[in-house]
From TrEMBL, chain A:
Cellular-component GO terms for this entry: respiratory chain complex III
Major subcellular site: membrane
Pfam families: Cytochrom_B_C (PF00032), Cytochrome_B (PF00033)
Lineage: Bacteria, Pseudomonadati, Pseudomonadota, Alphaproteobacteria, Acetobacterales
Species of provenance: Teichococcus oryzae
GO MF terms, alphabetically ordered: metal ion binding; oxidoreductase activity; quinol-cytochrome-c reductase activity
Cofactor binding notes: Binds 2 heme groups non-covalently.
Record: residues binding a ubiquinone: H217
Protein name as it appears in the record: Cytochrome b
Domain Cytochrome b/b6 N-terminal region profile: 14-225
Residues that span the membrane, as ranges: 43-71, 92-113, 128-149, 161-184, 196-216, 248-268, 306-326, 338-358, 364-387
The entry's keywords: Electron transport, Heme, Iron, Membrane, Metal-binding, Respiratory chain, Transmembrane, Transmembrane helix, Transport
Domain Cytochrome b/b6 C-terminal region profile intervals: 228-398
Automatic annotation (TrEMBL), chain B:
Annotated compartments: Cell membrane
Name of the molecule in the record: Ubiquinol-cytochrome c reductase iron-sulfur subunit
Homology family: Belongs to the Rieske iron-sulfur protein family.
Reaction equations catalysed: a quinol + 2 Fe(III)-[cytochrome c](out) = a quinone + 2 Fe(II)-[cytochrome c](out) + 2 H(+)(out)
NCBIfam families: Rieske_proteo (TIGR01416)
Role: Component of the ubiquinol-cytochrome c reductase complex (complex III or cytochrome b-c1 complex), which is a respiratory chain that generates an electrochemical potential coupled to ATP synthesis.
Subunit details: The main subunits of complex b-c1 are: cytochrome b, cytochrome c1 and the Rieske protein.
A GO-annotated cellular component: plasma membrane
Residue ranges, compositional bias (Basic and acidic residues): 14-24
Gene from which this protein is expressed: petA
Cofactor: [2Fe-2S] cluster
Ranges for domain Rieske: 92-188
InterPro entries on file: Rieske_2Fe-2S (IPR017941), Rieske_2Fe-2S_sf (IPR036922), Rieske_Fe-S_prot (IPR014349), Rieske_Fe-S_prot_C (IPR005805), Ubiq_cytC_Rdtase_Fe-S_su_TAT (IPR019470), Ubiquinol_cyt_c_Rdtase_Fe-S-su (IPR006317)
Keyword vocabulary terms for this entry: 2Fe-2S, Cell membrane, Disulfide bond, Electron transport, Iron, Iron-sulfur, Membrane, Metal-binding, Translocase, Transmembrane, Transmembrane helix, Transport
Length: 424, 190
């Protein structure tokens, strides 16, 4: 690469001076201005941008909460109540952070669902997908440790149950749990390290998000048809088309967020977490936060300690190898008549697992959880590999523009209408 | 301005390509930008406000001091809003000294009666107005500087028996906090 100043096209002399030395403005223009984006996105393509905004909201509210939080077993609960009662707008910042966690999981789950439905995880976007699964794992770890910080009953017993999962590991399990706790039970050292890590991990997530987005900008986005753009007639510049479309989604997202925060701030939480932690009494009905329920159901579905733990982690691990399990060359479920319904069933099954995870671990609920667990894995390990061989996909359209523009969209005709804003 | 979407037929919009004419798109950009700015401000407000003193901090913003155990010539230091406050029971001689000083000699001129509510009782914030150290002079054995009040060991500011700056780098007198006599033997600071 030649050294010397970057050949900037920016007119403003100050910005140009910076851009010649650090071409961030050229980069932003290339990646977020003129970046060619498939012209047929639907609103499911909002959720990546929404997730990024959600991460920023969590980091900002978290930094301000940390200014008033005390990570000590004797003061943590009271410091959170002080935030709620005494700190100016503390109630607002905490409720945004608390419900922001739920919103983050809703947004990311829809984002993952879009991937599953439109086959975005397939070549050449396997690494992009893997970074996404890493983010999802980091989010779960961060959310779990954040839930421990208020040091309520659910915090304490959630921490106890989840850390005890590691005791299922043969031979070294107990030593690992002692290491995680920094003692012989969940106690002050545990709370201290959870606070430290809860503050750290979001920045790790931000780093992986950067890799996720960088990978995306190498391959370009998938789209509802699951076919690659063949030329400029199939794409639009990211700005203003998708900045505008994302803005519409962001406003809808803020409305849902605001309804949660201002009208039902504790709807997704558990009342027992407003009881200070008591190491001598376990709550009668202990459940994790809603976003962990499907995985919790899988854990409880297995009548063996190690087996349950393995299967629960396996439910995420299987996602890492999904690009190599689904060998069908057709990405979008629109053109896969059988796989489409198998995936729909998988989606419903996910909610069944969520429901089963919230029910007591007895009687009919266990049976349902077992059947659901079986289908969760069967979809990935049996149905998708099998369908890749036997399913006959519908014919794919010639091109994106051919499918979405009325009257065809031949190359020369489409090019004229493709970018009316190009010279704006 | 390649505004293919602007309503060129609208009479008051004129020619969208004209150099001075605002287009519908310009208007929309302005409105959108304004709303976004208001939104950002509305979001920033609670975060900035949360860094101001919380209600429990404000609740501790007053301090009551009982005076009857402070003999003439003695001083006590009380904590008020995280800072020391000097409450000094001045002797008749100290009061006399404070009143005798010509105002023209003072760097931050203030007559003694403006510094006190009742003559024997001087109440000042015990923070040097130079760079925030706590001056010496609360004990009779402390160095009190050349004017019998307080002496700041950090950079050598001398205060007199009315807490006024007399020599050294400090720019202003020791601050007099808001306080009131609740009775003859009790004051409330703040």
């Amino acid at each position: 690469m030649a050294s010397g100043l970057h050949d900037s096209t920016i007119q403003n002399p100050v910005i140009r001076w910076i851009d010649q030395r650090l071409p961030v403005f050229t980069m932003m223009q290339k990646e977020y201005g003129s970046f060619p984006t498939p012209r047929n996105f639907n609103y499911l393509w909002n959720f990546g941008a929404l997730a990024l905004i959600n991460l920023v909201i969590m980091i900002v509210t978290g930094i301000f909460l940390a200014m008033n939080y005390t990570a000590h077993t004797s003061m943590a609960f009271d410091s959170v109540e002080r935030i709620m009662r005494d700190v100016n707008y503390g109630w607002l910042i905490r409720y945004v952070h608390m419900n922001g966690a739920s919103m983050f999981f809703i947004v990311v789950m829809v984002h993952i669902w879009r991937n599953l439905y439109y086959g975005s995880y397939k070549a050449p976007r396997e690494l992009l997908w893997i970074f996404g699964v890493v983010i999802f794992l980091l989010m779960m770890a961060t959310a779990f440790m954040g839930y421990v910080l208020p040091w309520g009953q659910m915090s304490f017993w959630g921490a106890t149950v989840i850390t005890n999962l590691f005791s299922a590991i043969p031979l070294v399990g107990d030593s690992i749990v002692t290491l995680l706790w920094g003692g012989f039970s969940v106690d002050n050292p545990t709370l201290n390290r959870f606070f430290s890590l809860h503050y750290l991990l979001p920045f790790v997530i931000a780093g992986v998000v950067f890799l996720h987005v960088a990978t995306l900008h190498i391959t370009g986005s998938n789209n509802p048809l699951g076919i690659e753009p063949k030329g400029p007639q199939d794409t639009l510049p990211f700005h203003p088309y998708y900045t505008a479309k994302d803005s519409v989604g962001i406003i809808a997202y803020f409305i849902v967020f605001a309804v949660l925060v201002f009208f039902t701030p504790n709807y997704l939480g558990h009342t027992d977490n407003y009881i200070p932690a008591n190491p001598l009494v376990t709550p009668a009905h202990i459940v994790p936060e809603w976003y962990f329920l499907p995985f919790y159901a899988i854990l409880r579905a297995v009548p063996d300690k190690l087996g349950g733990v393995l299967l629960m982690f396996g439910a995420i691990a299987v996602l890492f190898v999904l690009p190599w399990l689904d060998r069908s060359p057709v990405r979008s479920m629109r053109f896969r008549p059988i796989a489409k319904w198998a995936l729909m069933l998988w989606g419903i099954n996910f909610f069944v697992l969520m429901w089963a995870g919230a029910m007591p671990a007895e009687g009919i609920y266990v049976t349902i959880a077992r059947l659901s667990t079986a289908y969760y894995f069967a979809y990935f390990l049996v149905i998708l590999p099998l369908l890749a061989k036997i399913e006959r996909p519908l014919p794919l359209p010639e091109s994106i523009s051919h499918a979405v523009l009325r009257g065809g969209g031949r190359l020369h005709g489409a090019a004229a209408t493709a970018k009316p804003m190009e010279k704006a | 301005m390649a505004d293919t979407l602007a309503p060129t037929s609208s009479p008051d919009m004129g020619d969208p390509h004209g150099p001075e004419q605002g287009t519908k798109r310009d208007f929309l950009k302005l409105v959108t930008g304004s709303f976004a700015a208001v939104g950002v401000g509305a979001i920033a407000w609670p975060f900035i406000a949360s860094m101001n003193p919380a209600k429990d901090v404000l609740a501790l913003a007053s301090t009551d001091v009982t005076l009857d155990h402070i003999a003439e010539g003695q001083a006590v230091t009380v904590m008020w809003r995280g800072k020391p406050v000097f409450v000094r029971h001045r002797t008749a001689q100290e009061i006399q000294e404070a009143k005798a000083v010509p105002l023209g000699e003072l760097r931050d001129p203030a007559p003694d009666q403006e510094r006190v509510q009742r003559e024997p009782w001087l109440v000042v914030v015990g923070v040097c107005t130079h760079l925030g150290c706590v001056p010496l002079g609360q004990k009779t054995t402390d160095p009190r500087g050349d004017f019998g009040g307080w002496f700041c060991p950090c950079h050598g500011s001398h205060y007199d028996t009315a807490g006024r700056i007399r020599r050294g780098p400090a720019p202003t007198n020791l601050a007099v906090p808001e306080y009131e006599f609740r009775s003859d033997t009790q004051i409330r600071i703040g």
